[in-house]
Every structure is written in structure tokens, then in C-alpha cells.
């Protein structure tokens, strides 16, 4: 029906393929004056306005965004919604940071009301930043998962999330057991996976906080539920890696722990992977296991510099997406994350161009999560999640953007200077979900 049709007009940018592996012309699409037509939550047409205008149903007037850039909604492949309240916690690296801040905050999520309040703010913050899909950790409590999926459902967002599994090396109030973790995850999969746009992710926190029995149970869940995602952390911090070696001396290394329990493969996203060895990268590529590059977090916690160039080596490319890793990460913005990814790559003498950065933040993330047939692209048939970026969001940005020579240069400026102010509008399933310039709703009284 025409009531469900929306259309937007303006410059369009998206990806057909991975620009780390294919020519720019095969992978990158740019249409200067484009038209996107959406019906019932999906993109039905994307192309030049001049060619598509006659396909607009009678009475559908496109929202015009001249001089903006319309890109697929950003995909955040690693984030902890339950850590929204502890961003910017001073003074420690990973393990101390977990003990001093994270494990304290996550205990508050046994309270469903608190979980609901933070989940609501989290979803709004994603949309303010142009992020329409996120793969997120919850807390150990099933009610923390219910709260997030309920808020995501209210906004019709495509979110993947799961209950943290941890049965050792954390405060008692945060521990489950191999059996309860398995049973609770199974019930949550039945309730949420494929309900609306929600997707479930089996979520062992990381090897140090799960017993072998729990990792075994996580592997069983993965075998029993083929479409479900899996997420955990790997090789983020050198002290963490030594700890894993002492806890699992019979395994060849950190990645091999997950491999042994059947946790690698398509739809598995490992956060960080800063210190993966060459052989571990080979194994990720061979199994189709993805890594989430979280530069703001890796710098904030002093974890190290991710080797993006090696990860995307065309001889054995890994799937890589970008992650904010809130609350060790310092920004919800995938633009700010691209900025830090650029600097980290420069430290390895690898110039990360904006075409590759925007790919990582959109199609690359969707491929990492195994949902590239649905999100991360403006190709017709995909779900109509997209963002309108404003090159004149601030006076300085406007000045800089006025000097660019082409779209790639403009994307680079947006990636380095952009943040939530740059997000003019966010559309979810074809409907306006965030409008930066909308008048604030008056408060009562
Ligand atoms: N490793 C295990 N848990 C966490 C977490 O919550 N954040 C980060 N950055 N790393 C982890
Ligand atoms: Zn994390």
C-alpha cells in the first residue's frame, strides 16, 4: 500500500563488495543525485533520480536531502549496552577495569526497571549516531536481555544480543552455571531469535570467565541453533592472554580454546583480536570467523594496535567489522570510530582510505554478523535502514567540506571530523527514527 512507501532523494553511497579485495569500481557505488524508494520496510529501488522518478507512486513526495550523503545505517559489531553508564572510567587496563567498574555496574541489571531505562537510552543513542544495527552484550541476567529486545522492538531496529555466560572469576552475584546459562540462553533464543527483527547471540564473556563445561554448553547451543550468532572477546590484552594460557594449558593458544569448543565459524564475532598470531588469523579466515575492530577501546584501555592490514590481507582475508565497545570504547559514533581506526592504521604505516572505512562500518559489519543479505547496503531488497550525513553540521566541517575535490575526499573528512552532530537523520525500516533538527518535545507543566 502507498501508505507504507517512503522515498528520499540525495547523494547515495553504498558497497556491493569488499573494497579490500575488489576494485573500487566493483565495490563502491556513488550516485550524485539519487533516489531511494522504500516500501514496507525494504528498499525497492535505488538509482539516479532522473531514471527512477517515474517509479514514485502517485502522491509520494521524496524527502530531499541535497548536499548531504545518504549511506546505509551503521553496523556496530561490538558493544555492551550494560556499560553505557561507565564510559570514561579512569585509570586501568582491561582486567582491573573489569573488576573495578564493569563487574560492579553489571550487577545493577538484575533490576528489570534499571535495565529498561538504560536499554531505552542506549537505543536512542545508537539512532542519534546513525547506528541501526548493533551486536551487543547484555548482562548475565535474562531480564537484561528482555529489556534490550523490548526497547529495540519498539523502535523496530535490527539488534543482535545475548545473555552473558560466566561461571567463574567474577563476583558471585554475576555468575551463572554451565546448566543455568545453557537453559536461560535456550529460553531466550526461543523468545527472541527471529521475533520481529531481533537476533540472538550466544555470549560467553571470554575464556577466563567460563569453565570448560560452560564453553562446552555454549558450543552445544551453537550446534542446536544454526542461525544464531556467537560473540565473545579474544586476544585484547597481553596479560589476559597469559591468563588464558594458564587456565587452558592443554590448548595451543587463546583462539584454540574457542576452536576446541566449536565456537568458531560464520556468524561468530570475536571482539578485539589485537594480538592474534598469523596462524590464528589464518584459522579465523579458514573458518569464516569475524573480528570486531574496536580502536577507541583498544586505545582507551591501552590494549594495543589492531593489525587491520594483516587481517584484510587479500591472500587470506578475514571478515572484519568496526565496534565501539562501549563502555571501554569512548564514543557511540562509528564516524569517531573510523577516525581512530585511521590513526591506528597510520601507526602501522597503512593509509586506511575512507572507502574502506565506510565499508567496514556498513557492509563489512553486516558480513561479519552474517546478515549482509538484509542490512548494510542500499541495494534493492535490503531492509531500509539508512543515515543522512550532513557535511555542514558545524562551521568548521562546512569550511573543510567546501574544499573537497570528490566524494572520497568528502567521506574521509566526514570520517575524521564527524560525530553525532553529523547525523542529520536516521531511518529504520523506511521510517524516520531520528531527526537531528526536529523541535524538542516540550516537557509538561
Ligand atoms: N573482556 C571480557 N569482558 C570484557 C568487557 O566487558 N570489555 C572489554 N573491552 N573486554 C572484555
Ligand atoms: Zn567488549
Which SSEs are present, and which pair or pack?
Blueprint: E1 5-15, H1 24-27, E2 28-39, E3 42-48, H2 49-52, E4 63-64, E5 69-72, E6 74-80, H3 94-105, H4 112-128, E7 131-137, H5 142-155, E8 158-162, E9 164-165, H6 178-192, E10 199-204, H7 212-224, E11 229-234, H8 238-247, H9 254-260, E12 268-272, H10 278-287, E13 290-293, H11 295-300, H12 308-311, E14 319-322, H13 334-347, H14 354-369, E15 386-389, H15 395-401, H16 407-417, E16 423-428, E17 431-435
Parallel strand pairs: 1-4, 6-7, 7-8, 8-10, 9-10, 10-11, 11-12, 12-13, 13-14
Antiparallel strand pairs: 1-2, 2-3, 5-15, 15-16, 16-17
Helix pairs in contact: 4-5, 5-6, 6-7, 13-14, 13-16, 14-16
Bound molecules: guanine and zinc ion (ZN).
Give a summary of the structure in a few sentences.
Keywords: Hydrolase, Metal-binding, Zinc. This protein has 445 residues and is of the alpha/beta class.
